[in-house]
């Protein structure tokens, strides 16, 4: 297991957050865990990844996420991996959260010359027969998105239950803010020595 990019996340440890300070050892190869020799804390090799907290093997989860990325259905993926649909949904949620975090970290200050704006319809859990006790996110869902061209990187996404003028304005306001923030960063970069 790779030791060099691991760090102790115990805030009270003198080696907290440090990389390459020789305080990290393998705690268990079988469980893929590390430990810190300074404070004794142990942690999973999957810390901070899409696999954190999952019991299934990395290879199975990675293959399932690749299939979903190629538009295989949830049920087809569940059958192919021989796991319950809800387990595949959990994997998808973990993968989605990680993808959003990586995008937010890497895609900043994106210069936008041309953008494609679009809305897509989908639904969360239920399309019809919503009950009063159902969570607010259930039901019809519109995904409004702006993609910068030609790179096709996502500038902003907006989710709404309604496809209305008010939601379109809210989405365009977010888009405008994202573009203005990117232009501001670009200007600071140009001015900075
Ligand atoms: Zn420590």
Strand tally, please? 6
What's the number of helices? Answer: 4
- The pLDDT mean sits at 88
Overall outline: globular
Helix fraction bin? 25-40%
Calculate the terminal CA-CA distance, rounded to whole Å: 42 Å
How many distinct folded domains? Answer: 3
How are the strands of the largest sheet arranged?
A: 1-2-3
Which molecules are bound in this entry?
zinc ion
Tell me about the largest β-sheet: 3 strands, antiparallel
Rg from Cα: 21 Å
Question: Can you offer a commentary on this structure?
Answer:
The protein has about 190 residues and is an alpha+beta fold. It has 3 domains: about 1-45; about 60-105; about 115-190. The protein is built from 4 helices and 6 strands. The strands form 2 sheets. A 3-stranded antiparallel beta sheet has the order 1-2-3, with no helix packed on it. A 3-stranded antiparallel beta sheet has the order 4-5-6, covered by helices on one side. A hairpin with a 3-residue loop joins β5 (about 140-150) and β6. The chain starts with about 25 loop residues before the first strand and ends with a helix. The model has no long low-confidence stretch (mean pLDDT about 90). The protein binds zinc ion. Zinc ion (ZN) binds next to loops.
